[in-house]
Amino acid sequence: MKSVLLHINQDPGQAARLAAAMEVVRAHNGQLICLQASPLDAYFFVGDPFGGSYVPSGIFETFRQNEKLEQVRIEDTLKREGIDWQWLHAEGSAAQTIIEHAKFADLIVLSQPEEKETMLPRRAPLAADVALHVQSPVLLVPTAGQRFTNSNAAMIAWNGSPEAANAIRQSRSLLRAAPKLHIVSVSEKGKKPSLDALSNYLTRYGVTAERHDWSLDGDTVANALIAAAASLEAEYIVFGAYGHSRLRETVLGGVTQDLITTSPVPLILAH
């Protein structure tokens, strides 16, 4: 993973996702692409009954100054850490700009959604909206909780779906670097996806994995996967994000929604 795209935004999750992105860049001798998106529409105010809008005096200048200070702070960190980086700035919504600049990214690093992003059931926060519209895997980092270092066990959440298979293919280089790998299958309604084809696929790439059939025990699939990760001491979970677009909204499947909003460990997701 030579090209890692990092979302730059002054929010509580920035430090954790910056640390995770640097770990991946170091491990693969790659370059970090820092993408600072300016959602300027958030700073426009309706000014008259006819729909006119404007930016109040001083707000735009303060916003730009804060962006520059953030850039200086992060670039100082990257210099100290010996990270090769490129800084990009774009105007527009975070989702739109990330999707636009993800064409040549091997990995996109985002934060677990904040509570305000999850108020509407089945509506996609930024991470899922991006994952469902790009061809690159997304590393989703919790603001607090397990750090991503790729130096501990990894876990694949396998349900036999095309989305899960795609997430695995796109994460091969990270999975090869994990000291231990677990494949966890959670049976739903009597359905039990075969693990043989997946195990054979990984073996062809020199990756061996322990296989586990995990019981729901009356719980949700997301909670069962989180429990499995804790029991197996997995640092992160690879899974396929399920969802679709409808009337310009991204609508998520239940397991995807639950995992990205509640997982205490990092997630690598792809559609």
TrEMBL record:
InterPro entries xrefs: UspA (IPR006016)
UniProt keyword Plastid, yes or no: no
Gene3D superfamilies the UniProt entry points to: 3.40.50.12370
Keywords annotated in UniProt: Plasmid
Cross-referenced Pfam families: Usp
Ranges of residues in domain UspA: 213-269
Family membership noted in the UniProt record: Belongs to the universal stress protein A family.
Name the UniProt record assigns to this protein: Universal stress protein
Organism of derivation: Croceicoccus marinus
